[in-house]
Amino acid sequence: MDEKALELNLDSLAEEARQCRQCPLAEQRTSVVFGEGNPTADLMFIGEGPGEVEDRTGRPFVGPAGQKLTEVLRSVKIDRQSVYITNMVKCQPPGNRVPTKTEMEACWDWLAAQIALIRPLLIVTLGNTPSQRFLEAREGIGQLRGKLYSWKGGIEVFPMFHPSYLLRNPSKTKGSPKHLTWLDIQAVADRISLLRSQSPGS
Ligand code: URA
Prior knowledge:
By secondary structure, this protein is an alpha/beta fold. Helix content is 47%, strand content 11%.
């Protein structure tokens, strides 16, 4: 599929998602925060759910956590526009609570369709919620992060700390969440370059 057709498909999917009322999160939302970025990205970032700024603007990761994510990406010269960014749930959970299992399952088909259209080589899951869902794991992000896992259709998954966690833990000392994230994003940058070099048509 060429980039334009893909964009049209993602756009029509987003349009459909904007009408979604499959779970109670639809009641209080201002926006459906579908996702944004490169429709042919080989690297995709998946967070938990929109916060206040995201709900207001309709864009993922544009509040304080989003600024932190952009900064983390920039540290390894990854441009935000070159990747695709979305969340497990597309509507803000009240008070930014963790989305329930029912809400995540109700929203799963939107995410599965986004992944099927974009066909990334590597998905970075941010924090406990997407990491545990993708890996069907009970361990926390502290245990899961920093390793590559293979997921469906040959796509790799790499869990990292959620950027909000970094905002709450600003220390940069060795072994701190910030330090580990710095190592993790370098591992992501290295892995994606290798996967790109191995992918057909590169
Ligand atoms: N936190 C998330 O998990 N996603 C966003 O889009 C913003 C904050």
